[in-house]
TrEMBL record, chain B:
<keyword id="KW-0997">Cell inner membrane</keyword>
<keyword id="KW-1003">Cell membrane</keyword>
<keyword id="KW-0813">Transport</keyword>
<feature type="domain" description="TRAP C4-dicarboxylate transport system permease DctM subunit">
    <location>
        <begin position="7"/>
        <end position="418"/>
    </location>
</feature>
<dbReference type="GO" id="GO:0022857">
    <property type="term" value="F:transmembrane transporter activity"/>
</dbReference>
<feature type="transmembrane region" description="Helical">
    <location>
        <begin position="358"/>
        <end position="383"/>
    </location>
</feature>
<comment type="similarity">
    <text>Belongs to the TRAP transporter large permease family.</text>
</comment>
<comment type="function">
    <text>Part of the tripartite ATP-independent periplasmic (TRAP) transport system.</text>
</comment>
<keyword id="KW-1133">Transmembrane helix</keyword>
TrEMBL record, chain C:
<comment type="function">
    <text>Part of the tripartite ATP-independent periplasmic (TRAP) transport system.</text>
</comment>
<dbReference type="GO" id="GO:0005886">
    <property type="term" value="C:plasma membrane"/>
</dbReference>
<protein>
    <recommendedName>
        <fullName>TRAP transporter small permease protein</fullName>
    </recommendedName>
</protein>
<keyword id="KW-0813">Transport</keyword>
<feature type="transmembrane region" description="Helical">
    <location>
        <begin position="138"/>
        <end position="159"/>
    </location>
</feature>
<keyword id="KW-0997">Cell inner membrane</keyword>
<dbReference type="GO" id="GO:0015740">
    <property type="term" value="P:C4-dicarboxylate transport"/>
</dbReference>
<keyword id="KW-1133">Transmembrane helix</keyword>
<keyword id="KW-1003">Cell membrane</keyword>
Amino acid sequence: EELAIVGSWSNLPLYQDFETPFWTEKLPELTDGEFTAQLTSFDQMGIAGSDVYRMLGDGVFDVGATVADYTVGDAPELEGLDVPLVATTPAQAQAMVEAARPMVDDIMRDRFGAEVLGIAPYPPQVVFCKGEVASLADLEGKKVRGSGRMTTKFLEALGAEGINIAFSEVPGSLERGVIDCAVTGAGSGYSAGWWEVSDTLMTIPLGGWDAVVIAMNADRFDGFSEDQQATLKSAVAEGLEAPAWAAAEGGLDNDIACLTGTGDCASGEAASMTLVEPSEADVETAREILTTEVLPDWAERAGGDWATRWNETVGQAVGVTIQ
Amino acid sequence: MIWTVAISLLGLMALSIPVGIVLFILGIGVGEFYSAFPLLRGLGQVIWSASNSSTLIAIPLFVLLGEILVRGGVAERTYAALDKWLSWLPGGLVHANIATATMFSATSGSSVATAATVATVAMPQAEKLNYDPRLFSGAIAAGGTLGILIPPSINLIVYGFLTETSIPRLFSAGLIPGLLMALAFIAVTAAICLARPHLGGPSRSFGWSERANSLVQLVPIILLFAVVIGSIYAGWATPTESAAIGVVMAGLIAIFLGDGLGPRAMAQALHGTIRISAMIMLVVAGASFLNFAMTSAGLGRQLTEMIEGSGLSPFGTLLLVIALYLVLGFFIETLSLMVATIPIVVPIMAGLGYDKVWFGVLMIVLIEMALITPPVGLNLFVVQGARKSGSINDVIMGAIPYVLVMICMIAALIALPGLALWLPSIL
Amino acid sequence: MTDALHGALRRANRIVALILGVALLLTVAFILTDVILRKFGWGSLGGSDEVSGYVMAAVASWGLACALLDRAHVRIDVLRQKLAQPSQAAMDIFAMIVTNGVVLLIAWHCWPVLQKTLERGSRANTPLETPLWIPQGIWFSGWLWFALSATLLSLIGIAHLAKGRRAEFDAAIGMGSELQE
Ligand code: NA
Ligand code: NA
């Protein structure tokens, strides 16, 4: 079976280092030639990341991958997959995603007519700031470039101001004081030179992990035999999900080393940003805001019994309960 | 697939079906014949994504800026002043077209908006003074393309966004090549008109006092440039927001330094803005859908195989990529061309060691060429739209010498990368 | 009757263009306010880029009919200009009918975008949480208006052609040669 795949951002490592080799080379190997694939990415097709699942549901292609957080306009309950700040290590993030998987399966079926094949992480979305920022509380009154609805709500609750500007405009905007801080993956920030214009790196995942859900049109998936379905799912789990998560573990350490100059940087010359690691108090504050403001707000947006379901799954995995 | 699409494109356009509609028809055709998927179901979503764009809003804003300068008499005075300084050259007023386009390029981020503005003020003069319509309109179409090389530039914003390159750096990199190309346009025009004086219309000389007095007419445009570019570099505004600041500034200039801007003139400016923007947007929407269909059908894979499979040296690859843009630029609308190819081409070029800022400037020159090569060349369309009579063939013919200048500019950028990279390195 | 219809269509589209123009001016004001507030540290209105996108979508749908009535959509005349009058008219009516068909098809395929939004109650993934049916409803109705205008213009063209009214035919769907203001 030949599959038409639409992958995530083509300029990021997830696509270049994991999606591309998986769909073009590993998939035929892992499935004994049962499946082959033609790959492109949503940005190359000129479609918005938020429209990928809409088109997937229409059968415009077989498999689509995009950041779940982009599509919460169509499915607010999907915000529960990637809650900022609750998972600080790749292992925790993976536990969070695994706990959320049954929820995500249902959401993708109901909202988009799609079957989830796997969920892969982008690097944690950390904070680059110009000037001294020693704790989460210091963000109060600052202008922060963040993306995602929950992150913006969290910033508002902190007393910071969420500003929406394009990725490529961040360095200039930091330099000239249009914004004080910006959120992105540590690796992206390193390769885009954000360290040239900012001083402090806060390694709290303020923007969450931007989990990418890889899903297949349900009609197409249901048309396969059970054997084929199992083969395909295990191929994705083994050939795409697992390596992407494994790389998240080492990748973050390397990126932090490159940005702060503490440790070995394999990607090039190291910068010398000041590393601010989350303190106990920061984590406490964050959880307090999450459980009292941000998450209840979400529960209302999502409606139904999503808060209960979340508490029983993701909440248990990360130790947070929506009041 | 590329060739079938190209030939069908020529055929349908020759039937005088509107260009935007032709692009939609081709997109539907590619979906039917080259893809196993019901791409037509994605049509609405693609159009919505292409139109709901806070980057593209800069196009109507820059067009409006130009319309206000025209209705407020500012554009006409700028044009007249530059005429006094340049019309002694062989080619006369054609030089004023280029110089006016260069000045407006510094306030407008859009090539089509620049061409539209200059065409509106300049075209009436061509008939009055009996100029050859080809060279005269070709110079406006070509001069207008400087709008995206001289900062600000919508296309450089798009490039910066897609390649994660600093936009202010890209902007500063475009300035020197942009000015050099303007000078080269003037030199080529003079050379052509020396050889064929009847193309150029009368050379007219003005006294030095008259010239000196006219300088004051250039102040508004310089002021506008300072505000638009200054707002970006001073950190007040993002490049897209600077377009809105430019509109307000243009309005103030028209009211206080120009002929004023009454409700009637404003209504005309708005009507003109919507007409031109909608014309452009139909082409952009059609091109987005065609791009979507072609990418679904494997355009990216074909390009990747062609470039990576060629086994060429870095320099050979560069030449191949340039040739590719030359060919694709004939047929594909420029923003779609950039969106479809940058994610494939730029990582390859960066991997071969080419500087992304430098390559961005090189690509913009190639994109400028695409804007004035038939059959799909938005600037040709815009200039033709501003003419009262004649065929689009005139504009196409007239633009050819300037295409050759652009090819020389590409060679110069390869030979002397510092043309682009020096300014960003000292800022 | 046809003339009255054509005149009414033109006037209606002029009004549409004016409304779009005013929307553009309001966007300018919005962006400028945001820039000034930010510059002086008075906070931010937020969402100016989101609203800009919606205005752009409105211009790019409602404006299309205005450009059609002004005969501003680009057509290539390489072949047409070499032909005699009757063949030119045939090309004009052919181009108009093809355009009309494609626009109807597009409008038809734009509906599912709004339909999904309505079914799911989709909201923009931004701090504003704009209910998407509003901007998409405006956008979709713009395409409907374009389809309606194109259909009426086709009928007007056919009527002029049938009566042999050459000048009126040209003014309706010919190639723009006298774009009057
Ligand atoms: Na410019
Ligand atoms: Na072209």
